[in-house]
Amino acid sequence: QVxxxxxxGGLVQPGGSLRLSCAASGSIFxxxxxxxxxxxPGKERELVxxxxxxxxxxxxxxxxxxxxxSRDNAKKTAYLQMNSLKPEDTAVYYCHVAYVNKREYWGQGxxxxxxx
Length: 116
Fold this sequence. Notes:
Blueprint: E1 3-7, E2 10-12, E3 18-25, E4 31-39, E5 46-52, E6 57-59, E7 67-72, E8 77-82, E9 91-99, E10 104-106, E11 110-114
Parallel strand pairs: 2-11
Antiparallel strand pairs: 1-3, 3-8, 4-5, 4-9, 5-6, 7-8, 9-10, 9-11
């Protein structure tokens, strides 16, 4: 069974940093895309960042220049470095993984709260 383990969320002051991790296991297939979506109270879920197997990245306009996504293909793990955090970044962040066999999976979500 495929399992995604997320970590790194927490409470941070505006301007601070957090590093999220998402580790995938349980599949023999190569992962096409890894990334994070987030959902803030009263808002729809939105794509935050995504990275392909080859390292091509996509960012939401609201986080571009502040967040950096990377991945270690051997470890099947993605990382989201979140710098210069703002209160509007507060949300539950969900890891998302898409395999080459077209199957997709979601992590359990981790809370990120940016507040003074």
